[in-house]
Amino acid sequence: MSGQANDLVLVLNSGSSSIKYQLVDPNSGAVAASGLVERIGESNGAIEHRAGDRVVEHEGPIADHKAGLQLVFEMFAETGYDLAGAGLRAVGHRVVHGGEVFYQPTLITDEVVAAISALSELAPLHNPANVTGIESTRELLPGVPQVAVFDTAFFHGLPEAAKTYAIDAEVAARYGIRRYGFHGTSHEYVSGRVAEVLDRAPAEVNQIVFHLGNGASASAVRGGAPIDTTMGLTPLEGLVMGTRGGDIDPGILLHLMRSADLDVDGVDQLLNRDSGIKGLSGVNDFRELQRLIDNGDAAARLAYDVYIHRLRRYLGAYLVALGRVDAIVFTAGVGENSPQVRADALAGLAGFGIEVDPARNTAKDRAARRISPDGAGVAVLVVPTNEELAIARAAHRVVTA
């Protein structure tokens, strides 16, 4: 495939100072190349680009997203893919917040970019970076169709009772306040894979999906459609995460604003960067947390216990909300790689038909798999997520429709 992009889709996930990317075949799911641009705008920028067995690296200043992407395109050319000249089928962009406006994969135009930018007040940490990545790519690949795929889209149709906050209805309507949910691309992909693993039609499967990474969320999915999820207006609500604490009494924030003289920026820093596992233990990497626990660190132990307690609280809520549960599913970095989290989250629930087989749970297997015993009433599964493939397929559908 040297020199040719052919039917491939370039998937971009642009952060404030980083770009994750993959060149994906949407038909087979094969990854032709992937990489990460880090520390954009800093003197010690870095890129690691992988294509097959080849690894190409760059270290040095990366002025902005456009400069980073230009370097990436040079690395693609060096490893056999001329993105600018060979005719990509599409570029798919992950966009975090679609608000009420966007709930389907959307072909990007000037008007769409402006609308995504206007939604930045709902996702100030994410949407501006997403827009920067989109604008840079449109400049570098002006003839390639580009598609925005929204993290909130899967949860757009939540039931009214699940998406509505109990605040003044006029205020909520004026400022777009509702529960939007996030990680939707992952929840949609994984819940669809569960039906395949169980060899059942999606409409027949009720499931609880735990997307557990540095950001974490859960969803209750009935017959292929979500009926509830843990994240809300922003990605702050719900489960305990790496640096975000999830559910919190809003009165705590009022108390701190009055008593600790915190302003809006101080509250933002506390909630988004200094809470969660990091706020309780000083670290936000689960591997480091486990090391501290093994060394007898009491703060790390408490952080872990709070994390599991919140998982189990939502598990119970979603068991009731669904009424009948066919599968409980773990995905993303922690969900896929921590047997301890999976075992502790579901401990003592045999009376509900929920059990984890220790040997299956600890097996070194990267494939989608069942970790519950044969004959268990509820299937417990580990299903690797693949948001990049989901975005690639969505973008491909849009441009070939």
Primary descriptors:
401 residues; alpha/beta; six-stranded mixed beta sheet; 16 helices; 39% helix
Give the structure's gist in a few sentences.
With 401 residues, the protein is α/β, with parallel strands linked by helices.
Rg over alpha carbons: 21 Å
Question: Quick one: biggest sheet?
Answer: 8 strands, mixed
For the largest sheet, list the strands in their spatial order: 5-4-3-2-1-6-8-7
Give the number of helices. Answer: 16
What is the strand content?
15-25%
Mean pLDDT: 94
Q: SSE string, helix = H, strand = E?
A: EEEEEHHEEHHEHHHEEEHHHHHEHHHEEH
Number of strands: 14
The dominant shape is globular
Helix residue percentage? 25-40%
Uncertain spans: none
Helix/strand-derived category reads alpha/beta
Q: How far apart are the first and last residues' alpha carbons, in Å?
A: 25 Å
What topology emerges from the helices and strands here?
Layout: E1 9-14, E2 19-24, E3 31-38, E4 46-51, E5 54-59, H1 65-78, H2 83-86, E6 90-95, E7 106-107, H3 110-118, H4 127-140, E8 146-150, H5 160-163, H6 169-174, H7 184-198, E9 206-212, E10 216-222, E11 225-229, H8 250-259, H9 264-273, H10 276-281, H11 286-294, H12 298-322, E12 327-331, H13 332-337, H14 339-345, H15 358-362, E13 369-370, E14 379-382, H16 387-400
Parallel strand pairs: 1-6, 6-8, 9-12, 12-14
Antiparallel strand pairs: 1-2, 2-3, 3-4, 4-5, 7-8, 9-10, 10-11, 13-14
Helix pairs in contact: 1-4, 11-12
Protein described:
With 401 residues, this protein is of the alpha/beta class. It is 39% helix and 19% strand. It is globular. 43% of the residues are buried. The model has no long low-confidence stretch (mean pLDDT 94).
